[in-house]
Amino acid sequence: MDAILRNFSGGSVETRERDRGGKPSREQVEAAVRTLIAWTGDDPKREGLIDTPARVARAFEELYGGYFECPIEALSRTFEEVGGYDDIVLLRDIPFVSHCEHHMLPFTGTAHVAYYPEGRVVGLSKLARVVEIYARRLQTQENLTAQIATTIDEVLQPRGVALLLEAEHSCMSLRGVQKHGVSTVTTQFTGVFQNDPAEQERFLRLIRNR
Ligand SMILES: Nc1nc2c(ncn2[C@@H]2O[C@H](COP(=O)(O)OP(=O)(O)OP(=O)(O)O)[C@@H](O)[C@H]2O)c(=O)[nH]1
Ligand SMILES: [Zn+2]
């Protein structure tokens, strides 16, 4: 239980993805949702709410499905027939929804993912799948950014990886400080994007210039 709720941030991607724990039963989850409903002040036994715990459990399976998918596997099929192409590959504006690990409230935004292939490339959708898998876990935006970058870097071993995420956190807009329209930007660079300021600048320019 502890293991599954932990969002593994230490060790290699492979270790992180291997160390999975058990899972509570459906009955336990539904009982927990009934407790939360009662905590709000409502009656979990009233007609409109009677099936809600089951719905919430199903919604959680969808929203947090990323714990049961493997980002390493998503990147496992690569191909080399790209006519000698060896320049930057950039996926711009990948939309994502994740949930902050502090409040379990959604933060939504877009991810820009780039890498410099080293001989072999991966199917484009697989990069978006890695974003999706990690987004569907409890996250901080920093951790989400780092996990996507590290995974692509470790699995594909390209010449470099560049990530930029921009998102609005509903725990900041709907509650607490209640600031709407704040965009949080995080970046992570490896390889040439980290070592060569010109490459980093090129990535940022490609994102900005539409
Ligand atoms: N660094 C980081 N902080 C986050 C992220 N998501 C939410 N937070 C912040 O986590 C912090 C949690 O702070 P706490 O003081 O424990 O919680 P809180 O009392 O609800 O804080 P307020 O939101 O200021 O009311 C808040 O400042 C949130 O804005 C994230 O992805 N990254
Ligand atoms: Zn939060």
Automatic annotation (TrEMBL):
Source domain of life: Bacteria
Entries under InterPro entries matching the protein: GTP-CH-I_C/QueF, GTP-CH-I_N, GTP_CycHdrlase_I, GTP_CycHdrlase_I_CS, GTP_CycHdrlase_I_dom
GO cellular component terms attached to this protein's record: cytoplasm
Domain GTP cyclohydrolase I: 30-208
Family matches, as Pfam families: GTP_cyclohydroI (PF01227)
Region (Disordered) residue spans: 1-27
Biased composition (Basic and acidic residues): 14-27
Broadest EC class assigned to this enzyme: hydrolase
Reactions that this protein is recorded to catalyse: GTP + H2O = 7,8-dihydroneopterin 3'-triphosphate + formate + H(+)
EC number: 3.5.4.16
Pathway info: Cofactor biosynthesis; 7,8-dihydroneopterin triphosphate biosynthesis; 7,8-dihydroneopterin triphosphate from GTP: step 1/1
Keywords assigned: GTP-binding, Hydrolase, Metal-binding, Nucleotide-binding, One-carbon metabolism, Zinc
GO biological process: one-carbon metabolic process; tetrahydrobiopterin biosynthetic process; tetrahydrofolate biosynthetic process
Molecular function via GO: GTP binding; GTP cyclohydrolase I activity; zinc ion binding
Residues engaged in binding Zn(2+): 100, 103, 171
NCBIfam families for this protein: folE (TIGR00063), PRK09347.1-2 (NF006825), PRK09347.1-3 (NF006826)
Assembly and binders: Toroid-shaped homodecamer, composed of two pentamers of five dimers. Homopolymer.
Family classification: Belongs to the GTP cyclohydrolase I family.
Protein name (Swiss-Prot/TrEMBL): GTP cyclohydrolase 1
Organism field: Microbaculum marinum
Gene: folE
